[in-house]
Amino acid sequence: MKRNDIIFLLTSIVILSIAWVIFSVIHASTSSTIASDVNNEILPISATFDMRTITALQSRQSITPVYTFHTIPNAPISSASSSASNLPTITPPALNISPTLPETPSPTLGGILP
């Protein structure tokens, strides 16, 4: 390719790229994703502050959490085996369950409609 051909291709690509960006910006600015009825119901945020609420929030007490667990020294610790032996034992009743299948195919089994 000659030098003039390369310059022509480069200038064409630059001009087309600039036009593409300009038309994309124009399209994005003119089209809206918000419906017109929703846009009518949107109210702007008022610029006034409720100073009474802000002072009430500032006057709250600050509580710092305690991340350590303190144990009581010389506290008696009961063993788990002695407390478990005093509990009654409960045995569950035996269940007799037999599986049954539906006689007609249902829409949830295999996707077959009756």
Radius of gyration: 38 Å
Series of secondary-structure elements, N-terminal to C-terminal: HHHH
- Termini separation: 71 Å
Mean of residue pLDDT values? 78
Number of helices: 4
Helix content: 40-55%
**Proportion of beta-strand residues:** under 5%
Number of strands: 0
Notes on the structure:
By secondary structure, the protein is an all-alpha fold. Helix content is 42%, strand content 0%. It has four helices and no strands. The protein has helices at 3-30, 36-41, 51-58, 80-85. The longest helix has 28 residues, at 3-30. It is extended.
Structure characteristics:
42% helix; 0% strand; 114 residues; 4 helices; mainly alpha; extended
What is this structure, in a nutshell?
By secondary structure, the chain is mainly α. The protein has helices at residues 3-30, 36-41, 51-58, 80-85.
What does the secondary structure layout of this molecule look like, with pairings?
Layout: H1 3-30, H2 36-41, H3 51-58, H4 80-85
